[in-house]
Amino acid sequence: MSRDEGQARQVLIETREERLLVVSDMHVGNPYSEARRALGAFFDYARKGRFNVCINGDGFEILQASFSSLAHDSVGVLNRIRSHIDAGLRVYYVVGNHDIVLEQFLQSWSSIEITPFLNVSAFGKRIRIEHGHLYDPSFVRSPGVYEFLTKLAGPLLRIYPDVYRLWALWENFWQRIRAWRSKSLIERSVYYQAADMLLRRGFDVVVFGHTHRPEDVSLGEGRRYINSGNWVRGGSYVEIADGRIELKSWSRLPPTDL
Fold it and tell me: How far apart are alpha carbons 86 and 83 in whole angstroms?
């Protein structure tokens, strides 16, 4: 890697922001995701408010989508991203486990800034934004098996569109078991443990996606773990602005197709 390339990479990983919106797990291309219908108004809100945007992983669905579905659904979203960048705003893309094979395509398209994670400085606080799949025990132990089972679960979407929520409920069940066994909040969730590790490295707030479960949890001493949730059947996002970091819900109606 050349010196210039190294400096460019550092720009992608470290940034200073005053107004930033973080969304994750849109799974555009999944025929059962409602993200495409809501993102038009969301990007309008971001542009009018002069917010930069961070897509925190699994923005596009490659494991459970056909090529035709992905191509059809992606066009409008990519055009919105391009318009946002053309308006002088930035779009960061933190790669997740469902879209990692699209990394090179996204990097070559327009000026989307691709990164494995994003460290944000905002009004005196340090914020770590990461998709979170690298802390998922099932993914870490056997990524190949995890990917196979994810593809296999595709037909279940016809029965229950947000099958990921079922997985989150299963994890929540085990979280309750761990809570019963342990008095420590952090020990109740592998994601709390991962966030705590990052917080101890000097961050004030850690933002994950991946679980599809929106959360804003205090891990003590003013340190927070936030999960931005999903846009498959949800609409939660993190807003960083005016000295605040807030988990919000998007409910502007009516939704319109991109």
Answer: 5
